[in-house]
Amino acid sequence: xxxxxxxxxxxxxANEEAIEAVHEELDALWEDAxxxxxxxxxxxxxAVIEAxxxxxxxxxxxxxxxxxxxxxxxxxxxRLQARVSAHNAREPFANDMRADMPDEDAESGRGLAxxxxxxxxxxxxxxxxTNTWILTRESTPADTD
Length: 145
Prior knowledge:
alpha+beta
């Protein structure tokens, strides 16, 4: 595997302020990884923010501890990857994991379908009370002529 060229992250309470913090981390990441094409930046950032927002809005605590959000974003020459985790969270219901686009009249339920449309792969892991979505987008660096 190629080396990590840039890395940013966030760890803290899963609340509305966390979304702004993840935005700021992504902005700083693109300063460190200016070779990533604009389209890849935009689509990947949208997927990461959507995944984080889904945790903030929908993750339920598994016990007395509040849910915590953890976002670890790495950039390699041809791959952008984010591990977006909900610590101390209940396991999502099976229907929460569906990526089908809801009816056009539905007011919610588009998150996972949108994420899957924006990245190359989405995988889900659950371990020790932590739900983790791994978002990967294959990228072709911009020409450096």
